[in-house]
Write a structure and sequence with these properties.
There is one protein chain. This protein has 25 helices and 24 strands. Strands 16, 17, 18, 19, 20, 21, 22, 23 and 24 form a nine-stranded mixed beta sheet that branches. A six-stranded antiparallel beta sheet has the order 1-4-3-9-6-5. It has a four-stranded antiparallel beta sheet with strand order 10-15-14-13, with helices on one face. The longest helix has about 30 residues. It is elongated and about 130 Å long. The two termini are about 85 Å apart.
Amino acid sequence: MQSTILNMDQQVGDELGPETVLTFRPFIDHLRKRKEESNCHKSRFFAFVVEQFEKYPELLAPVDINKVKDYSELMQLIYSMLSPIVENEEHHRWALSLPLKPVVFYSTNAYFKLVTDLATGNVHKSIATKSAEEIRRHRLEVTYSLILEKCYGIFSLFGREIVHSLEDDKTGLVKYYKLNIDSRFIEIKTMAPLPELKMEEFHYGTYDHGELLDFLEHKLPLDIFRIEGFGIVEIADVTSEYSIEIIKDLILSRSSLGEEEYYSNVTDSLKVLVGTTDAEFGLLPLLRVNSKLVFDDGTFHNSKLINVAKARGVAESAYMTLANDYFKDPKPLFFREISGEDEAKKGYLRMLKDEGVRAYALAPVFFNNVPTGVVEIYSKKKNILNEALLAKLEPVMPLIAQMFKNSIDEFNESIDRVVKEKFTSVQPSVQWKFNEAAWLYKQSEHKPNGHPEIGELIFDKVFPLYGAVDIRNSTVERNAALQKDLIVQFNVLLEVLRQLRHESGFGLIDEKIFVSKKWLEKIKDQSGFSEMIKLNDFLEIDVVPFLRQFKTGNPAYASTIDRYFEAIDPDGGIANESRRQLESSMNTVISSINNYMEKMKDEIQQAYPCFFEKFRTDGVEYDIYIGQSIAPDKPFSEIYLKNLRLLQLTSMAAVARYSNALLPQLTRPVETTQLIFIHSQPIDIRFRKDEKRFDVEGAYNIRYHIVKKRIDKVTVRDTRERVTQPGKIALIYFSQKEADEYIGYIRYLQEQNVLYDDLEELDIEEVQGVAGLKALRVGVRLD
């Protein structure tokens, strides 16, 4: 036992709180009372203790804490009375303290070793990790809690639980200890009349702790109280319970943490729970897409087995098969020490052992009897994994199951979100309309004799903006690439046929050579080639079967014949090279523009919600609709429409620069043209349930749709020059008022050095069924 005086809160001075007096009188008074109430055996023991203390009457008066060490035998007697007789003081963390003050004057060896630095004998600094203000408020709460309990009979107003964290010297892990304070032998005396405390004045249950303390400090000043006696402190190791609570808090605060930080914090808490850093953990939720198991980079990064397999170049299909087999009947696996026999039976254990893993376990996790994932437990040291360690994990497994279930739900929601954003017309700006229609549909389901139908989804009086970025002369470029490839293909074919004729002497080959030459002449004809169907019939029905049959009957000529089939291979043959280069270049440009449009879609929503829909053709087309009916809760103004039109013009200039910057990276140079259709009058759009997309509504609105589909190839009047040109933006319009607004934006962008000072106002040829169209055209500074 230890008689050293320890001040557990050195940050806060002794001036805090009421006057405190150390005395053993309340303890002896308690024993005298119990002596009269107890049976003869206890009465004799109580009488003996009272008799021992009465030999030292100074202990029943105020006692100097520095002199308590002179009465160590009596302190031992108190310990014997208040602790189970079989308790071992080397393990029992118990102490005596000043009443309601964290000053210990007598303690067990176990308590002393825990709270002090054995090298210096001082209290661990890590115990007092809270600020002085936090300590002050907590001590006030404890003090007033006891005053209210003993003087007014009001219980459990403040929580008295105190938990400290200490770093374990052996493992380096944080451990948590709870202080239990026994106040049975503490009495509260009043130096003045006890103030009346009315419940209606008290507002019980409506104050927070801070307000309640302020009220009590005003109503019950501490200087009218005197606290006598001594306190009893017991420390319990609550690391297991506390680490479980930490995991609970992590699950609740999931949204504020990144994926890696979230899982890392949980595995750290699991190490604290089992009490060793030599045990490592992997957490792998069971994710499925279309009922098929998948591994997501964000969730399996801390799975030891998968990381080892990936590092060793094991194909994903291999460990996917292993995982699928395991989850057909998931059961715990436990290898206390991976042996040669274990390696022979399960190949993945050999990989783990090569990486230094000596013990390995898998624990399947279930949520409502459905598997949701597995917990890996492994160690690079021997004799770490055992049944006792695994048993410590049992209390936390339901929380891990909930965590995995949350991860699975998040994953499924992310898939749904991508589907909604990328593959359907239901965008966030109009989601409310679909939610409203779905709710009305569900309501009608429960009406008697009801035949529920989804209502019409119409947005009226919205302003349309249309733009198109197109690959310049894409059809011409494709035809030219096809012509080059066909010339290569027929040259190879003729070489193969001539070599076969020379080596085999087979007469029918002469006829094939003759026909092939005729086709090659037609393909090279500069006036154009228009017999693709007949040409394909010749190649697929005549040439290919002939070569295959000739090869089967004459294996010696296989290498010669294979030259032709290698040439026409779609993925690597030289007879498809021009088309592959063109398609690769076009895909690069279109994908880049498409990605830019995705970012533009997010940007335009910031000022005012609008509907944005794009279509991929030989370029990218888009429709934007903005108006009050899109966002009925946000007042619409023309300034939002003007802002959007300026943004549209600016983005078209950016696309022109962007696509031009890609030219050095392309295998075949392709250029883009930029087109905007200006339409200043609002229209109505309707969601077509049969096509699952929005479209214009009404005869007038359909005319807008027809016009925008016919203007991409319009020409300047009395010329064959197209209005759309590379490096320029073309704007098609009906009225001069529409043009004037955009001319203002153009002047602004010219001033900003975004556009050239070369604005053209053009008359254009009449489009089928549409008259009166005009155009603006302006160059973009591509540098």
